[in-house]
Design goal:
alpha+beta; 151 residues; 2 helices
Length: 151
C-alpha cells in the first residue's frame, strides 16, 4: 500500500533538486472534459503545495496555491505526451512550452493551456489496465496448464 501511495504522489507532485514538479504522469481518462485533479496542501520539502487542474473541451486551467516555507527555484508542470498544446498563458502572459514542460516561478497562480487530447489517443484508465492484466494472466495461466511451462 505504501508503495502505491508513493507512486501516485510522485505522479502528481514530486521534488527534484530545488524544483517542484507537478503532474509528471497523467492518464488520458483524468483529462477528459469536466474532470478535475486536485492537490490540497500536499506536503513537500518546500512546504504545502496546492494545485487544481480542470479539463475543458478547449484546454486546461491550472490554479496554484502554495504556502512554501522555502520556495523551490521553479515549478515544472509536465504536459502529457497525449496532449496537443496550441497556446499557454501564465498569469495572463504568454508562456513557452519546452520539451513538454511549462516552467514558472513559485509565485505563479494560474496557467491556461489551450489545446486538446490528441485524436487517436488510447483510452487508458486504471480499470482498463486491470482488465488487460487479467486477460493476459488468464492466457498465461491457460498456457501453463496446457504445457507446464512458465514464460
Amino acid at each position: 500500500s505504501a508503495k502505491l501511495i508513493e507512486l501516485i504522489r510522485n505522479m502528481l507532485v514530486r521534488e527534484y533538486r530545488d524544483e517542484l514538479h507537478l503532474f509528471s504522469a497523467l492518464s488520458p481518462a483524468w483529462l477528459a472534459t469536466g474532470k478535475t485533479i486536485e492537490l490540497r496542501e500536499a506536503p513537500t520539502s518546500f512546504g504545502p503545495a496546492g494545485a487544481r487542474l480542470e479539463a475543458a473541451s478547449d484546454g486546461l486551467r491550472l490554479s496554484l496555491t502554495s504556502h512554501f516555507r522555502q520556495p523551490p527555484s521553479r515549478l515544472v508542470v509536465h504536459v502529457p505526451w497525449f496532449y496537443e498544446v496550441a497556446a499557454v498563458e501564465c498569469d495572463g502572459r504568454p508562456l513557452p512550452i519546452r520539451d513538454g514542460r511549462l516552467v514558472v516561478g513559485p509565485e505563479a497562480r494560474e496557467i491556461l493551456v489551450r489545446g486538446q487530447i490528441l485524436p487517436g489517443t488510447p483510452a487508458t484508465s486504471f480499470e482498463q489496465a486491470v482488465e488487460q492484466y487479467k486477460t493476459e494472466h488468464r492466457k498465461r495461466h491457460a498456457e501453463f496448464l496446457r504445457t507446464g511451462e512458465v514464460r
